[in-house]
Amino acid sequence: MLLRALALGAACAVASVSLLACSDDEDSGVGDLVWTKGPNVYRQENLPRDRVLVGMIRNDSLRRIRLQAKDVHPVDEDGNPLRGNATFIRGYIHPLYPPTRPPRGGLPESELERLGRLIRLDPGKTAPLAVAWRVPAGKKGAARIEYGSGWLPVAGR
After folding, report:
1. Is residue 78 part of a domain?
2. Of 70, 62, 71, 40, which is closest to residue 121 (Cα–Cα)?
3. pLDDT exceeds 80 at position 72
4. Which of 11, 97, 104, 128 has a 20 to 30 A CA-CA distance from 79?
């Protein structure tokens, strides 16, 4: 009886993993990060090709994620990267070091985190994500935000 229950449990686990692996939900993205709030995409009336996306992300994996803002890129519907910038903070923070004279060996990780250039996100934790880009002439804008090991969808381009 115990073996039968274990076999049934294993079969259910395999079936649920198979369903997740076969899911083709384009709206949810792919990878360890998911949107928890937003994203909202903003346009300035006098800068019609510029976009700013603001949202909250959550680490849905079972491990800590370390991600640099320079590795976060907006990508158009054809898979072409768009020129843009990303940050993991909600507003402006003044750097401790002059931009032309960083400390030897580069900025320490604590300063990179404080400036929103680096994030270490534990499982289940959330953080802000802001991404800005310019839409090339004749394009709709970013279709997704790629971050190395996955991507997040963009609505309201």
Report:
1. yes
2. 62
3. yes
4. 128
